[in-house]
Amino acid sequence: MKQTIIIIIVAMMALSKTYAQGHGPLFGLQTPTLAKGGVDFNAAAMSLATKDDQSFMLRYIWSYGVTEDLQLNITTPTLINRLSEAPRTRGNSNMPANGDIEASVWYRFFSNAFGVGKRFESTAILSVSTPTEDTRGGINVSNSLHGAISTGYASRTWYAWVGGGYQYYLEESNDQLGDLPYASLVVGYRPNIFMGDYPKPDWRVFVESLAEFPGASVNAGQISPIDQRGKKVMLGPSFLGLYGAWGISFGALFPVYQDIVQGPQERYRLSMNISYWL
Amino acid sequence: MKKIGIILVISIFSFGSAMAQLVKVDQEVFGMDCAPCAYGLERGLKKMGGLGSIKVSLNDGKAYLTLSPDNKLTLQKIQEEVKNNGFSARRAEVVLTGELCKSEGTWQIKVNDETFQVTSDTTREIIRSLNPGIIKARLLIKDKSDRELSGTWEARIEEIM
After folding, report:
1. Inter-chain residue contact A242 with B36, CB threshold 8 Å
2. What does UniProt give as the signal peptide span (chain B) (predicted)?
3. Triad A51, A53, A54: Cα angle to 5°
4. Which end of chain A is more exposed for a tag (fewer CB within 10 A), N or C?
């Protein structure tokens, strides 16, 4: 497995011709894809706190732009502290929040650059994940499929993205984690003070919001007695700084509404991400 | 005498070819909003070779290219690079040296296998002053769809240099 990943990375680097963009919110869905032949490496530190426990995870993401509209991603985790009972959620567009290895394809199926620094675009995401643990919250965990779609506006001053996604877990030894429909809304702003031209550093702030509706899990062939979806709305700020080929983003999400049927209540999510465009 | 004539023709032709090139391109780029966008485009354009200097401005939405004296770059190649970075290449202001000729009643400037067709909105004074041969001029290149990039452009001559 390790060898395969190294081969993929080396092949992607060898194919690299030009470089790229791919920058957006930390938690929510986004639309930008890499340039044709562009390669991007991300290292992220993530933490999710519940009432009684807190996870710590490092994540690495390699992305490759097949064309300016088609991007491949692979992400692998290093778990420092795993939650014994993890809420069902996602980390962001191409990151599972839990210890899954995930490969995804992004397809920017619509793009209209209609002004200096301005564009509308829409992107579809399809992912497959495989877990790195056997059970999650006492349920045998299996591979899963994830699909999402987002659309948004980018300019030199304002950004906005809206989207929705769905994660479906396959059955494993008579157990099945409940599905996860979710919606994402992000608004971004670049203050005047950060309107300095390239190659000056480029900062922006986002307000991010996620609404998640985890479904009931199946345990030993039996669906939960309370067969209804949980509801959770998370809201928080994030910051993105870009300089040349480097990007750093950090932020937090806090629950503003939680009606959880299964699993623990969340207190907050933290994330920090460093990007390098090769 | 015949030999001298041939040598003369070849010399003139070689001189013309060597002279025909893009000198400066200010390429308008739509959809470029961030530092990595500019960084990616700058590196992509540099990779093409033939550049003397380059400056990408996010606030102007432009890539300012000064080309090296013996470059073989084409505007099509430059605009394709913009497209490959996920942006839209729009109008361009170009300074070039090329071979001016008239074809089917239309003035054309030929540079590195590209043809710049002079449009009717060029001022009468400039049109009247045109003569076949090598010309150095500043042109405003009309916007063309990113999906229809080719080596033929519509251009208004802004200045003969």
Report:
1. yes
2. 1-20
3. 110
4. N
Instruction: Give the DSSP H or E segment for A101.
Output: strand A100-115
Amino acid in the structure at residue B133: G
* Domain count along chain B: 1
Q: Which domain holds residue A198?
A: 2-277
Alpha-carbon gap, residue A27 to A61, rounded angstroms: 15
**Chain A hits for B81, Cβ within 8 Å:** 18
CATH no. for residue B38? 3.30.70.100
| pLDDT higher than 50, residue A219 | yes
Q: Which of residues 47-66 of B touch A (CB under 8 A)?
A: 47, 56-61
B16 interfaces chain A, CB cutoff of 8 Å: no
pLDDT of residue A90: 84
Q: Do A117 and B86 touch (CB under 8 A)?
A: no
Q: How many domains does chain A have?
A: 1
Q: For residue A224, give the CATH number of its domain.
A: 2.40.160.40
Note the pLDDT tens digit of each residue in B10-54: 444 444 444 789 999 999 999 998 888 899 899 999 999 899 999
A117 part of contact set with chain B, CB < 8 Å: yes
Residue B12 located in a structural domain: no
